[in-house]
Amino acid sequence: MTDEKLGNYLKEISKPEAPAARGQEMLKVTLMNARRSSVIGAVLIILPGGLILLFLLQNSLHLAPGVTRWLAGEGTFLPLPARAIVAFVFLVGFPVLAVILNMLAITWYRYDRARKELTVTVRMRWINVLIIIAGSALASFYVLHLLADTIMNKG
Per-residue DSSP letters for 93-111? Predict the structure, then answer.
């Protein structure tokens, strides 16, 4: 091969491109601060959890605390359907909101358009995981109680 042919061959070859570094493309940003969401989640679980504990104590010890008497309708101006909605939002909505906030705090989401895949990364912060479990259990407890009460009243 002569120098002229080698020069022409090298001019026609495409230049190699270095692959982009994968670490530089990705920036992980959480949607919520994990510490702040754990404090907010704890408050959103303690309030309805305390009310459920108060109801359980009232029924087991045959007490009549003022808060539960007020919710039962002796001191409120709200009609029964409005009280039911407020109680549902308080006893189910607050724990579900705590679960959502804590899930957003410990997960990262990344969508790769080239591969069409979604990558979910979970950071294990045990306090947030415990709040997620407690919030799910508290909301499930009340929903299952409502279902059982509805089934028992129809039977």
Answer: IHHHHHHHHHHHHHEEEEE
Give the pLDDT band of residue 29 (cuts 50, 70, 90): low
Number of folded domains in the chain? 1
Q: Which domain holds residue 133?
A: 31-154
| pTM for this predicted structure | 0.71
- 49 lies in some domain: yes
Per-residue pLDDT at 86 exceeds 80 = yes
- For residue 142 the two structure tokens come to 């009340």
Cα–Cα distance measured from residue 135 to residue 102, given in angstroms and rounded to the nearest whole number: 10
DSSP 65: -
Residue 84 located in a structural domain: yes
Residue 18 placed within a domain: no
